[in-house]
Amino acid sequence: MMIVVALIAILAAIALPSYNDYIRRGQQPEAFNALSDFRAKMEQYYQDNRKYGSGTTCANDATASSWNEFKATNRFSYACTITDGAQQAYSISATGTSGQVKNDVYSIDQNGNRSTSKFKGATVSANCWLTRSSAC
Fold this sequence. Notes:
By secondary structure, the protein is α+β, with helices and mostly antiparallel strands. The chain has 1 helix and 7 strands. The chain is elongated and about 70 Å long. The protein starts with a helix and ends in a 10-residue tail after the last strand.
C-alpha cells in the first residue's frame, strides 16, 4: 500500500508542473496576439501621422478612436506608452492578471523587439516572449 501511495506521489510531482506549463502555454497566445495586433495598428497610425501619438499617449486622435483601446480580457491587462519626446518610439506591454500567467509581463516596441520582464513570478530579462523556460 505504501508503495502505491509513493508511486502516486512521484507521478503527481512530475505531472503537476507539466500540466501547469501546458495551461500557461495555452493562455499566453492571448497576449502575444493582442500585442502583435496593436503594434500593426500603431504602424498604420504612424504611416498616416508620422508619429505614434502625442505626449505619452499612443495613437490618440479621432482617426484611431475605433481601435486604440485594448479589449478587456480575463487574463491580461494592456498598456501602451510613448517612450520618447518626439513620439517616435513606444512600448506596449501585457501583464497577466489571473490564471497561470498571473504577473507575467510581455512587451513589444516600435522595432518589433519582444521582451519578457516577469515570468512564473520571477523577474527576468529576456529578449523574447518566454513560453516554457527562463531562456529564449
